[in-house]
Design brief:
This protein is an alpha/beta fold. The two termini are 25 Å apart. The structure holds ligand T3D.
């Protein structure tokens, strides 16, 4: 499949999706939302892909919704429908993808792009990156999953403050708040993300995907429900090659050769 607004590359079981509208700080127009969604779908279908990296080209991760497209479409389009038909499909594709997604946050992630960044599973930020809930600057509420994802990560007080101030939260503060997993020098981001992705892609990736499912499901239930879900999902993990290989490798005192199956 060929794309115009993103770059998509697969190498050594790692798919890399690069948001590629650098002149607009990788703002999402409809085409970029559709193409990013399609790239995640393609990554889900391709059994050879075992980890996905999402990043931006240039100095921004993404500045969120393309505001020129926003005004061009005028009052004829319902924002609710625009979200349902666009960002919601992207967010759902990401959280339902049972493979780890690394967000290599190379610069500012603003507005809807904050939601997209939060829907990655591991976030590595460049020390020059920042997060900004730009929505209130244009009289909107946070969308693209931010109201669900962000308070769970950093607590409601900080999330609400970010929403109503639209302050740029720099990478070091994002790390202290638990919004990102690591901060690295900007010049090393691509290398660190690729190394981490490579090591995940060589791991028991079915288990990684099922862990994502178990943790996502656990938000919607109580402890007893979570215990039952774990038993059900572990049954699936326990039938994989990688479980048998992991146990055998331990007993034989050798490195496991996981195959993601
Ligand atoms: O219908 C729906 O689906 C609603 C959904 C809404 C979701 C949302 O995401 S709402 C929030 C949308 N995003 C924003 O409001 C952020 C707008 N951008 C900014 O505030 C600033 O650009 C930044 C703080 C991100 C970066 O500032 P700075 O000074 O580093 O860069 P800049 O000069 O503002 O931007 C560089 C260029 O990118 C500039 O174009 P030019 O003048 O060089 O031709 C600027 O207009 C363009 N650009 C940046 N962000 C956007 C954009 N163009 C269109 N849309 C953007 N979001």
């Amino acid at each position: 499949m060929s794309y115009e607004t993103i770059l998509f590359d697969v190498k050594d079981s790692v798919a890399t999706i690069i948001l590629n509208r650098p002149n607009k700080l990788n703002a999402f127009n409809d085409q970029m939302v559709e193409e990013t969604t399609a790239a995640f779908k393609q990554s889900g279908r391709d059994k050879d892909i075992r980890c996905v990296v999402l990043t931006g080209n240039g100095r921004a991760f993404s500045s969120g919704q393309d505001l020129s497209a926003f005004t061009e479409r005028g009052d004829t389009v319902s924002i609710g429908e625009h979200l349902r038909l666009g960002y919601h499909k992207l967010l759902k594709q990401m959280v339902q993808l049972e493979k780890p997604i690394i967000g290599a946050i190379n610069g500012i992630a603003a507005g809807a792009a904050c939601g997209v960044a939060l829907a990655t599973d591991i976030r590595i930020a460049a020390d020059s990156a920042s997060f900004m809930l730009a929505f209130s600057k244009i009289g909107l509420i946070p969308d693209s999953g931010v109201n669900w994802l962000l308070p769970r990560l950093i607590g409601q007080a900080r999330a609400y403050e970010m929403a109503i101030t639209a302050d740029q939260i720099p990478a070091d503060k994002a790390l202290a708040w638990g919004l990102v997993n690591r901060v690295v020098p900007a010049g090393q981001l691509a290398e660190v993300a690729a190394a981490w992705a490579g090591s995940l892609a060589a791991g028991p990736t079915v288990a990684f995907g099922l862990t994502k499912r178990a943790m996502n499901q656990a938000w919607n239930t109580d402890l007893f429900g979570a215990l039952e879900a774990e038993a059900y999902i572990q049954e699936i993990a326990g039938r994989t090659h990688d479980n048998k290989e992991g146990v055998a490798a331990f007993l034989e005192k050798r490195a496991a050769q996981f195959r993601g199956m």
